[in-house]
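Thread: Newbie trying to understand structure tokens

Hi all, I'm a second-year student working on a class project, and my supervisor (Dr. K.) asked me to get a predicted structure for one chain before our next meeting. I've only ever worked with sequences, so writing a 3D structure as a token string is new to me. If someone could post the tokens and maybe explain what I'm looking at, I'd be very grateful. Here's the chain:
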Amino acid sequence: MLLKKITIYAVVVLLPACGWAGYYQYRDASGVVHFTDAIAEVPENQRAALQIHQDLGDATPRQKIADKAAASGQTQGNPMGRLEDPDALENQLKTLKGDLDVAYREITDAKERLPSDPPASDDPASIDYARQVRDLNALIAAYEKKRQEYEKGVNAFNQEIQSTADGLAASESP
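---
Reply by user tm_fold:
Sure, no problem. This is what the structure looks like when written as tokens:
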């Protein structure tokens, strides 16, 4: 009988500690925001306005944003009427980055094929050299266009993610 009581007591006392992985947020009388994982550290007079947050652990920033959006009732894929599918955009950017890497290798290969000393203008090889230079310049121009497109996409993606995070943070502010 005693063993049963001890077991029940241990379960009642220890189980909540094992299952809780969150933290508390409160603002003191001087307006300073405090965070703690121990409710006992929160002053009694601040507990009414206490905010309880679930610990997101090792979640990625995107997972944290999605979790906050879901908790606040916003849709995950379109939390503020912005990104429809951030994963699809991220995959598209990865594809563009792969294309950039291939284009860069083509440029370096073409540059290595150029003779280190250009032929004299009266040399028949100068016509082939001029063609190789023209082809190299075309590769560089195409690469620069792809690079600008990629950079624009990355900036837009980062801006949308930051904007979404800022909007969610603002919606959580007291």
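A couple of things are worth pointing out once you decode it. Residues 119 and 126 are 5 Å apart (CA to CA). Residues 74-82 have pLDDT under 50 and may be disordered. Feel free to ask follow-ups in this thread.
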